[in-house]
Write a structure and sequence with these properties.
Blueprint: E1 4-10, H1 18-26, E2 36-40, H2 51-59, E3 65-68, H3 78-90, E4 94-97, E5 103-104, H4 108-141, H5 154-165, H6 170-176, H7 181-192
Parallel strand pairs: 1-2, 1-3, 3-4
Antiparallel strand pairs: 4-5
Helix pairs in contact: 3-4, 5-7, 6-7
Length: about 190
């Protein structure tokens, strides 16, 4: 009888893997705690660079089964997910994804389904990036300031430049404007450029 492992991952410390583990249990998998890996690490980190996932792979053997709730738990993009599933398949490990109705991602049908879903997810991500970049370019062309708000107004920056030119110290000016020395030094650097 194959051993069954579970892998759950969240991206931030505020999140918990509890819902993923409950979903796996509700799907009928009774997985021993020692065969469950729950990790708090960004999906942008490749699976083979995640400490918990790496330990999991080291423990798995031919015939074992890995259960995940969604494809994005294995990786953020299609290439990472595919590489991870292929590595597991090479070890003889079957990968079941609950999101896909428990499909075995190492089977021919599972591979095809995974490729299509990963391609669609990557396409949606690329569209989002294009829309975001387009919005940023439009805002810039309209003269909108991008990034954090300046801690000093235009008038204050001009006054800081004048006072620096007159020989006042960075520290005294920063103290008077209740800002950091780095802010005053940035004003000086911009004036010098």
């Amino acid at each position: 009888m194959p051993r069954v492992f579970a892998y759950a991952r969240v991206s931030t410390k505020e999140q918990t893997t509890e819902n993923q583990l409950r979903e796996i249990s509700a799907a009928g998998f009774s997985i021993e705690a020692k065969r469950t890996v729950a990790e708090n690490i960004s999906g942008s980190v490749a699976a083979n660079q995640r400490p918990g996932f790496t330990k999991l792979i080291d423990r798995m053997e031919d015939g074992d089964v890995l259960v995940v709730t969604k494809l994005d738990r294995l990786g953020r993009n299609a290439m990472d997910v595919r590489t991870t599933v292929e590595k597991l398949a090479g070890l003889g490990v079957r990968v079941h994804c609950l999101q896909l109705g428990g499909a075995d991602l190492t089977s021919a049908a599972g591979k095809m389904t995974m490729q299509v879903l990963c391609a669609v997810a990557e396409f949606e991500r690329d569209l989002l990036i294009e829309r975001t970049n387009s919005g940023i370019e439009r805002a810039k062309s309209e003269g909108k300031h991008m990034g954090r708000k300046h801690s000093l107004s235009v008038e204050q920056r001009a006054e800081v430049q004048r006072r620096l030119s007159a020989g006042e110290s960075v520290r005294s000016i920063a103290s008077e404007y209740d800002t950091t020395r780095q802010t005053i030094m940035r004003v000086r650097a911009i004036a010098a450029a």
